[in-house]
Amino acid sequence: MTACVPTSTDHSSSTTDASQFQRPHSPPTGGGPRRRFRIAGADLSASIAVFLIALPLSLGIALATGAPLQAGLVAAAVGGLVAGRFGGAPLQVSGPAAGLTVVTAELIQRYGWRTTCAITALAGLSQLVLATVRVARSALAVSPAIVHGMLAGIGVTIALSQLHIVLGGSPESSAVDNVRVLPAQLANLHGPAVLVSALTVAVLLSWPHLPGRTGRIARKVPGALVAVTAAAVLTVLTGMNVPRVDLPSWSSHALPGLPEGPVLGIAAAVLTVTLVTSVQSLLSAVAVDKLVAARKEPPTDGQRSNLDRELAGQGAANIVSGALGGLPVAGVAVRSVANVSAGAVSRHSTMLHGLWIVLAALFLVPAIDLIPLPALAALVMVVGFQMLSITHIRSASRHREMLVYAVTVAGVALLGVLEGVAIGIAMAVAVALHRLAKTHITTATTTDGAHHIQVRGQLTFLAVPRLSRALNQVPERTAVVVELDGSFMDHAAYETLQYWQDAHTARGGQVEITGRSGNRFTGPVTGASAGESTGTGSHGAHSTHTCCRPWTPWRNHHCDHRADAPSPAAPGRSGRSAGQLATGLSAFQRNTAPLVREELARLAREGQTPSQLFITCADSRLVTSMITSSGPGDLFTVRNVGNLVPPPGAESADDSVGAAIEYAVDVLKVQSITICGHSGCGAMQALLNSPADTPPDEDRTPLRRWLRHAAPSLDRMRSKKHSWARISGRLPADAVEQLCLTNVVQQLEHLHAHEAVRRRLDEGTLELHGMYFHVGEAQAYLLQDGIRIGETDAVFDRVGPVEDPEAEGSLEESRA
């Protein structure tokens, strides 16, 4: 022996690298230190779960294609061993996929089985070439609507063909023929086949929904295996006369031969198999990455898939599968999801599942021969219907790609996979061009003679003729507003608009170019500064003046507006405000509504479940969603002048605030309540400026009566019995800020007096928070330890990575 054995019996030493026990002068061992081959228990259990799913599915897919049933087992074994070993997605499980059923069935019918095997091997070689030139990532550029439409079309075709076997007949060669002869098939049902198929479908669909603890335990066994087993037991016990699986001897297994047929036809077949297997495998790998990222424990083989390596692994698997007489191989989403869900941590689970397939094909042939063919057909039929996913349909509809999806489905079902995908790509390009060229140009004249031209959509060279026609209809020496309601302007449109603006201005006219929110643009302008003033040059989208920002639509601000140059399109302030409102609503419906519609629809169905009650001031500068980074359904907000909380039973108390508190605490079950004050609060300024000796009967205005609920805050600030309010280590800058901070503390005490709040606080299920927002600094501060009562300061701490302000300030007027 060339290595010493450690004398210590400590088991932890066994994990130490073996090289440290090497004798200093002995020759090196044959390949260096040996690595022990270890298989995690999670991989072992996951491989068994995947095997139990893959075995019946592989047989069913082989049956659906018309290939020898052994070909499905060969593809499953090769997918597990070869693609699992060399692929770039360690947890993806490969094998015969339902998405290849239609393609393979057509190839077998046209060229025969031996030529189909050769086509599979050539497709694998093509995948190796594609992996070498690193095009895997670019394959993901195909629109999801096309991919989902392709899978749905294949699923429809599979379901229609297998339906005939379920009913006791035999399928036709195309989806159209299967639909045409379906009435005759329904009139001649084969009872035993229908009964076996019905049992299979019932078990398959009901198995995932078994209730109770027993159901949770039972669901660990795959539903596909249970359904096929139940069908086999039924046929054995009743002696039904239904066709069963008949695996011939492996000695008679058909191997590939030289391709026979027209060269162009063979090349098109290779291209089709390459396209379908590659896209399906890559999309499945991306989906597996998302599933793995959602798990707590990472896999041992890395976090993300190497798509080029995965494509090479799929190519190697197809070469081997075709050479051994197997079906085309691709990454399969169903088995991959099962693998991840079962807790697999490395590629060992995928490879072991392939090994179990080999052992089953060698030693479980008698048990496999008991499976009735109608049960396999029913299994594949259900898989085909599941490929027509409602989720994919909703996604296509939400992204306005339903036309692309529907055309792809119809093309695949009626013409074939390659033809359907090509038609889908053409439709996607046509839809994109239509959207790019869809530009609405309208003209209108205001009461004072000003002209308004609105351009909705993207301004490209396709819209230049209509834009020129609308601009040339504007009379000379008139005021014109051109509203560009889009996000892109190409060079041709830019030059057209700039040339017309120069000419119209030179003839004594006035031109104002605005965005969809009424914000004036400085460009396009004349001279060399045109590109600088627009911020885009002649090629970019129209841009606002530097004083405008992305939040301009909700700011009371107009770029470049001057008192001596009123907008020609807005003769009155009320008309301008109404126009701003309508424009803002239009922008919301067009840009924001599509993004939030799904979430709002969910909230409409399920109701609101906010986590916080947020009580803040009605000041227009406080945008609660911006400050708290919250969205629809997150905050239950109450806004009033001065962020006041009238104490229960107070004279002339406002019940609206108390009602909101009660509803939020008792009905909505919020976990926290936040009172947010802010700098420069007008209510606090009015409270400080009001005479201290004003009799209550003279508080005749609603504002004065309301501010009486803030009087305890003013008394608290002036009293020496209560703590000072500090803001991030300094004293407030002036008396107004001191009162704003003190008011937050005082209103928290008022809040604590409400019975519903006090009860939840005693239960420990509610928290109270104080918050202060400095408008000028755009900085939020949180009150330490909630309500502070006593001689210690009430400290508001800074939130966020902003640097502390300078030094400690002092009050401009001292407390009484």
Automatic annotation (TrEMBL):
It is found in: Membrane. Residues 7-17, 526-543 have a biased composition (Low complexity). The keyword Transmembrane applies. It comes from Streptomyces chryseus. Catalyzes the reversible hydration of carbon dioxide to form bicarbonate. Belongs to the beta-class carbonic anhydrase family. The chain crosses the membrane at residues 44-64, 145-167, 187-210, 222-243, 263-288, 351-368, 403-433. Residues 1-35, 513-543 are annotated as: Disordered. It is a multi-pass membrane protein. The keyword rRNA processing does not apply. This is Transporter. SUPFAM superfamilies: beta-carbonic anhydrase, cab (SSF53056). Keywords: Membrane, Transmembrane, Transmembrane helix. Its main location: membrane. Residues 42-403 form the SLC26A/SulP transporter domain.
